[in-house]
Amino acid sequence: MIHLLLTAVMAGASAGCAMNPVSGTPDLVFMSESSEVNIGSTNDAKIREKYGVYDNPELQAYVQQIGQKLAEQSHRKNLGYHFTVLDSPEVNAFALPGGYIYITRGIMAYINSEAELAAVLGHEIGHVTARHGVRQHSAATATGMVGAIIGVATGVRVSQDLFNVLGNAMLSGYGREHELESDRLGAEYMARAGYDPQAVIKVIGILKNQEEYEKKTAAAENREARIYHGVFASHPSADKRLQEVVGEADRYKTLSAPYVGRENYLKQIENLSFGTVKKAGVLVGNRYYLPESDLSFDFPKGWSVQPALTSLTTVSMASNDQQARLQLDIHDLDKDVTPDEFLKRHMQLNDLPKGESVKGLSQPSFTTILPMASGFSANETRVTVMHYNNKRLLLQGTAKTPGAFATADRVFLALAGKLRPLKAEEKTAVERRGQGQRLRVIRAVSGDSFATLAKKSTLEKYSEETLRLINDKFPDGEPQAGESIKIIE
Hints:
Number of domains: 3
Signal peptide: 1-18
Keywords: Hydrolase, Metal-binding, Metalloprotease, Protease, Signal, Zinc
Organism: Sulfuricaulis limicola
Shape: globular
Strand order of the largest sheet: 10-11-12-15-14-13
Number of strands: 17
Largest sheet: 6 strands, antiparallel
């Protein structure tokens, strides 16, 4: 019976086949191009709200211009492409289906030329043109269909969270084959647009150095590493497969001397914000401040913030032993919806376990424990919803083991009762501290070294290594007299 049902499912799935715009071969997809564009358009607002759009119209226009120049050479030039610089210190770039492409100011600090920027944007355009997001979504849909049929036949329920599958792929990568395909396509679009496709190898080498160093410092600080998904395990200088797919683009070159645009790019990123700024929260001592939401709380002892997972509307924390995690999400408040009703809608639950209000809070609240499995934990999750001024706060805490959860649950409940607004003197101090650093471009003079420049920098730690990384001089390069270099003030 199961065999017959699976055969029926696959027969129905074949009806969803379409021609892949890159390869010209059939694709198993369950989404029209108009639906694909609608997904991008619908979720664009969510991405902008979560990360924030970097407030620099000139830089936004510059990135849009370079992106469109590449998109015009792509296999799907008919799409209305949108390129946005996000106000995030994360080192990342990603794409939504339908032509919505994002690059963070964090990754732009490590790029050193227009050609390298084109390499990152071209890679993300490649994901769109090859419909990697759509194919990921369709594969998950097929899995969900098969799971439903198996459930009917066996009584075993199989579920699939399609949004999480697509979201994880966007931010963490689609696997080596799809990433290589995007590198190949991006290199082709670069060559056709007048850039040297070897800039793909160059920028991946820079980001690989950043990744390796970031992983070491993140491990020492017990936090998540901030790395770009389009980088493989091996260094590009030793990755023959990567070199081969990029080398294929040489036949598409339109210029004998492809454009690099180093000085023009450095001019564009002059005064770029570097690191965390006040909107994303400021940690002073053991207290965390969110000025945009007029919210602060004492950071739990033995816990640390997870910068790579923190945005304008989210603060993620982890215990130093990495056994427990806690996430605070900030939502707009609809006063007509009670905390428990919001939780049911947000979690898509028909019923909630017995819960209670958070002790010590005057505004409406609700807290309970849900039997919720995740990639991190197959145990319980403490979920708390609170009204806070004109915001709704959602706290979700989980742990790897039942014992770790029992210990961490006291932290989850205690934090909920410690949230408070900023005091007047705190607002002034946080405003001053939270401005963040700025990237400046200077002309190196004889005698300059990254050691001496680091001493003048406002970077509090790893300053010499950071300057080398953002200038592609890691691990031991030095500035040359007359060379334009980036510093952090």
